């Protein structure tokens, strides 16, 4: 996670995205001056000012583009060919093409990629706009569609780390809640990337890690020089817990799980 920014729901979905992107690009290039940066996002971030800024600063973009009649007219050849093949062979057909397109609000024409994949429900074309050269199908399948992993991480924080708990009466308090949620998410993400690497939970979601490694019943014994946690001997994830403990601490002796 690089940014967690709460905005009012009364503004455009892409408002301030360009400003946040500018800060991120500056930080990334300060660390890696020669790095090539490509952003991918859904159609909510497809705004011509953001694309123009990317064009002028050497940033690649692969952005979803909302379907409209003009796009469908420009892609009618691919859509019609895919529909003919679907009618002839029955299984869904996936055809890709590209063409120049400029919405009425854009400053200039840009490359648009269409995926035509008709099915029993209809034509179902999808569009992306990009300044990255390459084969249309590769850009769609290997770059654009991979944003699903990013969206899963966002959903993971919202559901498992209650990032959407922004019901306070003051906007600043809600932003502060989001930052706390984000800090907790980064900690769990770091645990997953480091201590859980090589274990059966290396790809576990935050909710699973929280439920099976954090929310564990224990008996706490407070003594003069130490605090002892006694975990149940029937705890089913002992091996993973032991491996995580060994990664996080520099133990001389890893304590056994069990004893009450």
Question: Topology of this structure?
Answer:
Blueprint: H1 17-31, E1 38-41, H2 48-56, E2 60-65, H3 69-74, H4 76-89, E3 95-101, E4 110-116, E5 126-130, H5 136-144, H6 147-160, H7 171-193, H8 206-214, E6 218-222, E7 227-231, H9 238-248
Parallel strand pairs: 1-2
Antiparallel strand pairs: 2-5, 3-4, 4-5, 6-7
Secondary-structure element order, N to C: HEHEHHEEEHHHHEEH
Multimeric status of the protein: single chain
Going by helix content, strand content and strand pairing, the class is alpha+beta
Strand order of the largest sheet: 1-2-5-4-3
- The average pLDDT is 87
Which outline best applies?
A: elongated
Helix count from the secondary structure assignment: 9
Give the amount of beta strand, in percent. 15-25%
Detail the poorly predicted runs.
Answer: none
Largest sheet: 5 strands, mixed
Distance between the termini: 39 Å
Number of strands: 7
The Rg value, from CA coordinates, equals: 25 Å
Overall structural domain count:
3
The amount of helix comes to 40-55%
Describe it.
A 5-stranded mixed sheet has the order 1-2-5-4-3, with helices on both faces. A two-stranded antiparallel sheet has the order 6-7. The chain is elongated, with a radius of gyration of 25 Å. 17% of the residues are buried. The model has no long low-confidence stretch (mean pLDDT 87). It is α+β, with helices and mostly antiparallel strands and 260 residues long. The two termini are 39 Å apart. The chain is built from 9 helices and 7 strands. Helices cover 42% and strands 15% of the residues. The chain has 3 domains: 129 residues, no CATH class; 51 residues, no CATH class; 33 residues, no CATH class.
């Amino acid at each position: 996670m690089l940014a967690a920014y709460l905005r009012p729901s009364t503004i455009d979905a892409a408002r301030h995205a360009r400003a946040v992107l500018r800060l991120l690009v500056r930080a990334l290039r300060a660390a890696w001056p020669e790095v090539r940066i490509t952003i991918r996002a859904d159609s909510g971030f497809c705004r011509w000012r953001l694309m123009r800024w990317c064009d002028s600063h050497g940033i690649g973009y692969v952005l979803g583009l909302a379907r409209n009649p003009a796009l469908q007219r420009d892609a009618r050849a691919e859509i019609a060919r895919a529909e003919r093949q679907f009618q002839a062979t029955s299984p869904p057909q996936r055809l890709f093409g590209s063409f120049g397109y400029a919405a009425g609000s854009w400053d200039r024409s840009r490359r648009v990629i269409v995926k035509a994949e008709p099915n029993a429900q209809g034509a179902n074309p999808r569009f992306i706009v990009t300044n990255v050269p390459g084969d249309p199908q590769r850009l769609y399948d290997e770059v654009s569609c991979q944003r699903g992993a990013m969206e899963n991480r966002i959903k993971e924080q919202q559901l498992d780390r209650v990032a959407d708990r922004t019901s306070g009466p003051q906007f600043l308090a809600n932003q502060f809640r989001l930052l706390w949620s984000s800090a907790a998410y980064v900690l769990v993400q770091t645990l997953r990337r480091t201590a859980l690497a090589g274990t059966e939970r290396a790809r576990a979601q935050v909710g699973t890690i929280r439920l099976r490694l954090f929310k564990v019943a224990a008996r706490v014994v407070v003594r003069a020089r130490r605090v002892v946690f006694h975990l149940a001997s029937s705890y089913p994830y002992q091996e993973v817990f032991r491996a995580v403990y060994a990664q996080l601490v520099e133990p001389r002796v890893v304590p056994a799980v069990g004893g009450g």
